[in-house]
Amino acid sequence: MALSRPARGAAAHSAAAHSAAGGVAHIRPDLDEVFRRDYRVVVGVAAGVLGDRHQAEDVAQEVFLSFNRSTVPATQTRGWLCVAAAHTALNHIRSHRRRAGREETAATVAHAVGVPDVAEAVVLRDEHRQVRAALARLPRTQAVALVLRHSGLSYADVAAALDMSPTSIGTTVRRAESALRKELHRHGSHI
């Protein structure tokens, strides 16, 4: 029986308990509680960057495995997890250019089977790909601030997560949005 995605995430969480040698590795005492509380937030941040829930769940697995190995204080876990999710997702964009090939294949298949509004779906997919690529070209702090803010975190939460002054987050996000628009324009996007 195949595991559903949420169950798969829980199974991946329990896999953190085992080392490659088959023994039990150190498990943070707060891992289970933090995982249950923040899994959806981490997946949401990663999905906001990647545009793909399945890949976001894979990123969440990586983030929680890293969290288990970290010494992040309990008071800073959510911010740390959100930043780690954004960084890991951006790394996936930068290093996994296979996405474009998969999207082209999916568009071709959809066109071949006569799915309605194929042209619109292809255009939207291409626009999302362009935005993700432009986001990956931004300076890391700007990209992460933009992702966290647009993932629903408050300015105060973004500031805490990035260890920045709360008064500077609004400016950082606006500059990131402006840089994103310039990046899109520079690369010929008509978004």
Describe this structure in words.
The structure is a single chain. By secondary structure, the chain is mainly α. The protein is built from 9 helices and no strands. The protein has helices spanning 5-15, 31-50, 53-69, 77-95, 98-112, 118-137, 140-150, 155-162, 166-186. The model is unreliable at 1-23 (pLDDT under 50).
Give the structure's gist in a few sentences:
With 191 residues, this protein is mainly α.
The number of E-state strands comes to: 0
Q: Roughly how much helix do the residues carry, as a percent range?
A: over 70%
Strand content: under 5%
Indicate the low-confidence ranges by residue numbers.
Answer: 1-23
Structural class of the helices, strands and pairings? mainly alpha
For the record, give the distance between the C-alpha atoms at the N and C termini, rounded to a whole number: 43 Å
Major sheet attributes: none
- Provide the residue-averaged pLDDT: 79
Query: Could you tell me the radius of gyration in angstroms?
Result: 18 Å
**Secondary-structure element order, N to C:** HHHHHHHHH
- Total number of helical segments? 9
Shape: globular
